[in-house]
Design goal:
This protein is mainly alpha-helical and 103 residues long. The chain is built from three helices and two strands. Strands 1-2 form a two-stranded antiparallel ribbon.
Length: 103
């Protein structure tokens, strides 16, 4: 028979894992990497919009281009290329739906 001495420690005494590295919550400071011109990047974020907002505007503009030029009707595109565009347009539509639900 084996003797077991208590207290038995099966896990580390301290569990620490950073959840959002490079993020600070003294009024949300995000350091996502090196910028070639940090002051311009900061001005854009404050005056134009977040990266998500900028990407949303690009996505909506690209959606217009795809539809107006009828790119999905182009017979020279492969099935994979058409599928990629359809997935993109589906994502744009899903974001639009989420926005409408939250207004």
């Amino acid at each position: 028979m084996q003797t077991v001495y208590l207290p038995l420690q099966m896990a580390p005494s301290s569990l620490y894992q950073p959840i959002l590295p490079n993020w600070s919550f003294n009024f949300l400071n995000v350091n996502a990497g090196v910028s070639s011109n940090a002051s311009i990047e900061q001005a854009v974020l404050q005056n134009v919009g977040s990266y998500g907002k900028q990407i949303g505007h690009l996505a909506e503009a690209l959606e217009v281009v795809i539809e107006k030029l009828k790119i999905l009707d182009d017979q020279s595109l492969t099935k994979e290329q058409k599928d990629a565009l359809k997935v993109f347009l589906g994502d744009v539509a899903a974001v639009r739906q989420l926005k409408q639900e939250r207004i």
